[in-house]
Write a structure and sequence with these properties.
Layout: H1 3-25, H2 32-46, H3 58-72, E1 79-80, E2 83-84, H4 89-102, H5 106-114, H6 116-141, H7 145-155, H8 163-169, H9 174-200, H10 208-233, H11 238-262, H12 264-295, H13 300-311, H14 315-324, H15 333-354
Antiparallel strand pairs: 1-2
Helix pairs in contact: 1-2, 2-3, 3-11, 3-15, 4-10, 4-11, 5-9, 6-7, 6-9, 6-12, 6-13, 7-9, 7-15, 8-9, 8-13, 8-15, 9-10, 9-13, 10-14, 11-15, 12-13, 12-15, 14-15
Length: 375
């Protein structure tokens, strides 16, 4: 680690001490917000110079910094003049989904024919475990109706766009991971509105066709365009290949920041409970995903892939649907909280599995889809 990176980590540590002192002396001090933001920014930069597991948390620390600023200074992230920043959310999600599409090919969808059992098990667990756990948590924690609907919404969403990267790091079955992401996403225009209508209809009105169309134009169309782009121009526009991961990460950070600012008051009221729900929901996805695949007699690498797919939800899509419902500050809160937490646990689990190599079996011989890690 070079001196600059070391210095940044020391600054982060000093900021952390400053945060603790400020909380003890005067928790309402105006310096608290900037101190926390500086702590996370310097930490995000500093860990890039390490060769440890913490390096993979750099993006998450950036998210925490942005969320801190949104909590302390929400007015900066709601409007610029007469322009409402929430208008940016759907276009940003479409860009992220286009980026996901550019990392896919027709072969990724045809792999369903080569690994039908793995896809069937993964999709079944995705659309049963997470929605059921979501409604159970929403009712158990007694959340206000619209926030409860957000918990169900994140559980009813398909696999997250970061799951393929995590599967690659975890030495999981990457081909299966990519295929599951693609298939669960293609099914989402039908299954997500259906699950929301059945489970969340008691909390907020759900219009099936309206939600289905929102998913199609926000998720499916950009992905299809991305796949078409990849088919005809793969490797020919290098600057776009390099830019898409950065654009995707920046877009996710902006989305979470805007939602946090919009839902600041509600988040202050139920924040700790919502974090607890996120922890339980996410952990349940990993546990049921892994052992559900084990019960189905899947090999170790496929079990890892399915666990990651089930545990990591598409928080971006859930956020966009909250915007489409006109409830960004309530329904959108669960996706905003779940997103950063899933990045933390996904990175940790992937790095843990990476250090536990598995023996090659016939089921592990699927061709890895290296391009997926560019998403």
């Amino acid at each position: 680690m070079n001196k600059l990176m070391s210095s940044l980590l020391y600054v982060s540590l000093a900021s952390f001490i400053g945060v603790i002192v400020t909380l003890i002396v005067n928790s309402s001090s105006p310096v608290l917000g900037p101190l926390i933001a500086v702590m996370f920014v310097t930490l995000a930069l500093g860990v890039r110079g390490t060769a440890t597991i913490f390096r993979s948390f750099s993006f998450t620390f950036w998210i925490f910094s942005a969320v801190t600023l949104a909590m302390f200074y929400p007015h900066f992230f709601l409007e610029v003049g007469d322009f409402k920043l929430s208008v940016l959310i759907v276009p940003l999600i479409q860009i992220i989904m286009f980026g996901m599409g550019t990392s896919l090919s027709v072969k990724d969808f045809l792999r369903v024919l080569k690994m039908p059992k793995g896809v069937a098990v993964g999709v079944a667990l995705q659309y049963t475990v997470m929605p059921v756990v979501g409604i159970s948590l929403a009712l158990s924690f007694g959340f206000p109706p619209e926030i409860a609907a957000g918990v169900v919404l994140i559980g009813s969403s398909p696999g997250g766009v970061a799951s393929n990267v995590m599967a690659y790091i975890a030495n999981a079955n990457l081909a299966l991971s990519v295929t599951l992401t693609a298939v669960s996403t293609l099914l989402s225009p039908f299954l997500t509105p259906l699950l929301m209508q059945l489970l969340a209809g008691q909390f907020v009105p759900i219009v099936f066709t309206a939600m289905m169309w929102s998913i199609i134009k926000m998720i499916i169309i950009p992905i299809v365009l991305g796949v078409i782009f990849n088919h005809f121009w793969h490797g020919k526009v290098k600057w776009l290949d390099d830019a898409m991961p950065v654009l995707s990460m920046t877009g996710i950070a902006v989305i979470i920041t805007i939602i946090t600012a919009a839902g600041r008051d509600s988040l202050l009221a139920v924040g700790l409970l919502l974090v607890a729900a996120a922890v339980i929901h996410n952990a349940a996805g990993y546990v049921f995903g892994y052992f559900g695949a084990r019960l189905a007699r899947m090999d170790e690498k496929s079990c890892r892939a399915i666990a990651i797919e089930v545990g990591l939800q598409n928080a971006g899509m859930a956020s966009g649907l909250a915007v489409a419902m006109g409830k960004i500050g309530t329904v959108g809160l669960a996706p905003a909280v779940f997103g950063p937490w899933m990045n933390i646990t996904g990175s940790t689990l992937a790095n843990y599995w990476r250090r536990k190599p598995v023996k090659k079996t016939l089921a592990d011989q699927s061709e890895p889809v290296e391009s997926a890690v560019n998403n």
